[in-house]
Design goal:
CATH topology of the largest domain in chain A: Rna Polymerase Sigma Factor, Chain: A
Structural class of chain A: mainly alpha
Largest sheet of chain A: none
CATH class of the largest domain in chain A: Mainly Alpha
Order of helices and strands of chain B: HHHHHHHEHHEHH
Strand content of chain B: under 5%
Mean pLDDT of chain A: 81
Number of strands of chain B: 2
Structural class of chain B: mainly alpha
Low-confidence stretches of chain B: 75-82, 110-119, 241-251
Low-confidence stretches of chain A: 93-120
Number of domains of chain B: 2
Shape of chain A: elongated
Order of helices and strands of chain A: HHHHHHHH
Number of strands of chain A: 0
CATH architecture of the largest domain in chain A: Orthogonal Bundle
Largest sheet of chain B: 2 strands, antiparallel
Radius of gyration of chain A: 19 Å
Distance between the termini of chain B: 92 Å
Oligomer: heterodimer
Number of helices of chain B: 11
Mean pLDDT of chain B: 75
Number of domains of chain A: 2
Number of helices of chain A: 8
Helix content of chain B: over 70%
Strand order of the largest sheet of chain B: 1-2
Helix content of chain A: over 70%
Chain lengths: 192, 251
């Protein structure tokens, strides 16, 4: 029978590095998805995942074993991503263009199967606009939105990760959706 | 019902609006709110299309490889908290070595020096051989269990790892003692067994059928199980009264 996260956390706290390895292997991919959505950049997301696990290992002694290890890691990864996005904002960097390799083409979901130049151009434009709109969110709005929209966390859980009141988390999500709607509505209308 | 504001529509989209049924009814009846909600849905659906690189199933292992060296070393629990067997064996053999050394020093100039030199080291060696025999039995058991495992899905070997860890701790003393008595062949076999056990103890706690096949191939290539059996057989013979002193030469 497969051991639970709690059992591996317990072993890792006692110094069993292999137990921590299992936790890393179990949670890396979901943390990468979170980090990528928050940073919009593959290299940054990979750095966030590694840094998150290193922070987690150093803080294992503070982890409350009654809590969910996954949620705890989300909180750490969110904070790492927030740090990185804030630092990047300060440098006023632009989001790096997404890597076309290994990417699923969003326009492939549309009914037509003909990859006409117009469709390809629209696909690329959609990606760019969505990425820009996400980039324009504040770090807190982006985190709250990613956790609610992509990770499916309820507002209560989002507030726990962000360590704020549920009302504040809710308003961050509202602001994020409102900004995205303002930015993307013209694009969506044009496509119809 | 009044019109739904944008925040209520967002909560409704995420299924967190308190009165979902009332909101649904209103959306059915009110074209204005329905249009706003439709716009919201379309925008969020477009956001969903933001692609994410597929990192593949081995990504977790790659992350571990990158961070492993940066993880501060912690002592494994079985090193941090020695077992009673570890302590007992350690105390017994340390005492034995001290006694043998003291006896040798005390009696080497006395009239019965020759007799003592013949009896005491032999008794000490006999105790060592009993312990080494037991250690080899248990090592062989762990390795055979892994070599014979034939699962279709990944196998959790944390129990075997724990036993391998204990055996590695134990073997240190035997190797030191064997080295002290100059039995290089025994030391060499113990070193080889130790390396395999250490790799198992420090490796992944879950092995795929492919990983187990690699373990089997390694055991076969290095002839570990055969060496253990031969050494164990010699050790058992050595425990008897007519034991041969050339234990290592038979390996």
């Amino acid at each position: 029978m497969e051991l639970t996260d709690a059992a591996f956390v317990s072993k890792a706290r006692a110094g069993d590095a292999n137990a921590f390895r299992v936790l890393v292997e179990r949670h890396s991919r979901s943390l990468f998805r979170l980090a990528f959505r928050m940073t919009g950049n593959q290299q940054d997301a990979e750095d966030v995942v590694q840094e998150s696990f290193l922070r987690a290992y150093r803080q294992l002694g503070n982890f409350d074993e009654r809590a969910s290890f996954g949620t705890w890691m989300y909180r750490i990864a969110s904070n790492c991503s927030l740090d990185l996005v804030r630092a990047r904002k300060r440098r006023n960097d632009r989001m790096a263009p997404v890597d076309d390799e290994n990417m699923e083409d969003p326009m492939a979901k549309l009914p037509s199967e003909d990859p006409t130049p117009e469709r390809l151009a629209l696909s690329s434009e959609v990606r760019e606009k969505v990425a820009e709109a996400m980039e324009d969110l504040s770090p807190t709005e982006r985190t709250a939105f990613v956790l609610r929209h992509f990770e499916g966390m309820r507002m209560e859980e989002v507030s726990r990760v962000l360590e704020c009141q549920p009302g504040a988390a809710k308003h961050s999500v509202f602001r994020a959706v409102q900004k995205l709607r303002r930015a993307l509505e013209p694009l969506v209308s044009a496509a119809e | 019902m009044n019109h739904l504001n944008e925040e209520q529509l967002i909560l409704h989209y995420y299924g967190e609006e308190g009165d979902a049924l009332a909101a649904e009814r209103h959306l059915d009846e009110c074209g204005e709110c329905r249009a706003l909600y439709g716009s919201l849905q379309r925008v969020l659906n477009v956001v969903d299309t933001l692609p994410i690189p597929d990192m593949g199933p081995e990504y977790g292992a790659r992350v571990w490889q990158r961070i492993e060296r940066r993880i501060p070393v912690r002592r494994r629990w079985w090193l941090a908290v020695p077992t009673w067997r570890w302590l007992a064996a350690g105390a017994a053999f340390a005492g034995l070595l001290v006694a043998a050394f003291a006896a040798g020093r005390f009696y080497q100039h006395g009239p019965s020096a020759n007799r003592m030199a013949k009896t005491d080291p032999a008794a000490g060696e006999k105790i060592l051989m009993v312990a080494v025999g037991d250690y080899l039995d248990r090592s062989q058991m762990v390795l055979i269990e892994l070599a014979n495992a034939n699962p279709e899905t990944p196998l959790d070997i944390s129990a075997e790892q724990e036993r391998a860890g204990d055996l590695v701790s134990e073997s240190r003393l035997y190797r030191q003692t064997a080295a002290h008595t100059g039995d290089t062949a025994v030391t060499n076999v113990l070193d080889e067994v130790d390396r395999v056990l250490m790799d198992i103890a420090r490796g992944p706690s879950e092995l795929s059928p492919g990983d187990l096949e690699k373990v089997r191939q390694r055991l076969q290539a290095e002839g570990i199980l055969l060496k253990i059996r031969v050494l164990n057989s010699n050790v058992r013979n050595h425990e008897g009264p007519e034991a041969s002193p050339a234990l290592g030469q038979k390996l």
